[in-house]
Each structure stands twice: as structure tokens, then as C-alpha cells.
Amino acid sequence: MFRFAHIEYLWLLLLIPVFVAGYIAIVQRKRRQMKEFGDEELVNDLMPNVSRIRPAIKFGLVMLALVLLIIAAARPQYGQKEKTIHRQGIEVMVALDISNSMLAEDVAPNRLDRAKQMLSKLIDNMVDDKVGLIVFAGQAYIQLPITCDYVSAKMFLSTINPNMIKTQGTAIGDAILTSVRAFGEADKEVSRAIILITDGENHEDDALAAAKAAVEQGIKVFVVGIGKPDGSPIPIPGTNNFRKDRNGNVVVSKLNEDMCREIAQAGQGIYVRCDNTNTATRAIQKELDDLATSELETKVYADYNEQYQGFVLLALLILIADFFIFNRKNKALSRIDIFGEK
To answer: Which candidate in 72, 111, 180, 213 could, as Cys together with 308 as Cys, close a disulfide (CB 3.0–4.6 Å)?
Structure first.
């Protein structure tokens, strides 16, 4: 199979007709000037070394070299070579609470940003593991299907904000069940884990039953509680105000550690509180390292063989040939009529 890796560069070939038209216009203008100067045969006799064919040949060679270089820049590729990649590791789904309460600033810079910093470090430590991302508030959604693409995972992570979900609340049970479904078919040979990051507030469904259902699928649930039990007001972005309840009182969001511990226990995982240190990161990383690693899958990648080298080499040879062709006739070689000028 033949293809161009950057086919858009071929649009540069449209410059070739423009250059040719410009060259023809210049040649015709010079010929008109020569006719105005005097008799054509007499003028040719006065300039015996001037060649009309050589400049055209040199221009043609330069244009041909330019065409070849443009094709090379488009990276022509042909065929493919296959290699099989065996990955070993674990599968991890991260369920991240993005409810408004995660904007509380009892951990710096706020709960949500601190959670994102923690997850970024965990992703940096992954090698052959697979990771996926669930966001939830009053409902849970798959933000990133499980993947080995850590660059994409961090990119999606950086874009997360509470505005992504209009339905407020903290549907932890829905988040856990959505994470279980996101893993796909059950595979007892692969170690799987859910990392639930939440402040545990506004529990709306049966999170304990969801955690037990995950365990039945061979999935452990680790819970990271973020915030402080004493709580903190929830700032309204873009203002200096805090969220208030219906009675006009400032809402204080508190970390519900009891609920977090119960979920972790039901999910046969651990509970750890995330603060402004790296304690939680190290604890979760240790649990992930302790999970048995197994072969996740075998992937076949197709890499096309690059063919641009031949085009570059041919263009270089043409430019070298152009360098040794002079615009004027060479007296020493005038007996050799290479270009048929006699």
C-alpha cells in the first residue's frame, strides 16, 4: 500500500505552474527587447557565447528538483512492517468527583486541582498499565476509555472542571458502576482497580452495594478522600463570594471520611486522605504496585516504510548537474554539441 504521511504538502506542487509561467514571461520579454535592439542574426553574431537552451535546461532541472523535494516532504510511504507488542501491567479506572464542592480550598490550590495533581503523578509512574477516566457529580460519565496512551490521559485530565456536568450531587455508586462497565468484559487474569477520588458529600445512591459489585468482578476499589473534616466554604468562580443555601447561609463542605472508609472496606481496598503532601500518592502507588501484573493484550502495530530518501537523493543529483551546466557556452567544450546548439 502506498500513501503520503503529510499529503497536504503536495499542494505546494501548484507553485510549479506559477514558476513556469513566470519563467516563460521573462524569456518572452527578453526576446522582445533583443528584437528592439537590432537585427536578430547580427545580435547573435555579436554574442556567440550566449545560449538560449542552457538557461531553459537549468530552469527545468531546478523545477524537477523542487518537485522531488516537495514529494519527499510529503513523506511517501510504501508497504508496512509489523511488530507485536506484549504489554504487562494492570488496568486502572479513575473516578473523579467534579461536583461544586470540589472547588473548596481546604487543600491547596483547591480539592479538584489537588486531585488532578495527584493523578498526574500516578500516570507518570505508569509503564505498561492501562488507565481510564470517569468524571461524576450527580451523574457519572466516561471521560476517557481505558487506554495505554498516557499523553492523552493527562491531556483529558487537564481539561476537567465542574462545568462538565450540569447535574450536581455526588453519585458515588453510579461512578463505581460506570467504572466497572468501562473495563469491558470480566477478565480474572488481569488485575483491575478503581481509584475513587471524592469528598464523600451528598451521597445519593448505594455506593457500598456498587463497591461490593465491583469486588464480585475482581475489581478492588481504593478511595482517596480529599478535603478536611472541618470543611471549607465553596467559592464561586470569578467572584469573591461563596455558595449559599436557600436560607442565605454560606455552605461549608466537609470531607465525609466515614463514608469513604466504608466504601473502601466494601471494595476490599484502602482509604487514604489526600492533603498537601504526597502521602496519599505514595500509598495508592504502593497498592497498585502490589497488584499482580499479567499480560494485558498483544497489539500489532503497522509501520509504513519511508520512501522519501530516494526522492531527496535524486533531487540532490539533479542540483549537482545543474551546478555544472553554465548559462553561457564553454569555449573549451564548444566542439562538443551536447545541447544541439549548432
So the answer is: 72
Strand pairing class (192-198; 140-147): unpaired
| Residue-wise pLDDT tens digits, 271-302 | 999 988 889 999 999 999 888 665 555 555 56
Is the pTM value of this prediction over 0.70? no
pLDDT of 46 over the 70 cut: no
Fold assignment, 91-292 = Rossmann fold (3.40.50)
| Contact (Cβ atoms closer than 8 angstroms) between residue 221 and residue 267 | yes
Query: E-strand spans in 90-165?
Result: 91-97, 130-136, 140-147
Pairwise CA distance, residues 58 & 53, whole Å: 9
Would you kindly state where each structural domain of the chain is located, as residue ranges? Answer: 2-80+305-333, 91-292
Phi-psi region of 172 (alpha: psi -120 to 50; beta: other; left: phi over 0): alpha
| Alpha-carbon separation of residue 326 from 19, 53, 155, 186, 330 (angstroms) | 21, 11, 56, 75, 8
Residue for cell digits 523545477?
A: 63
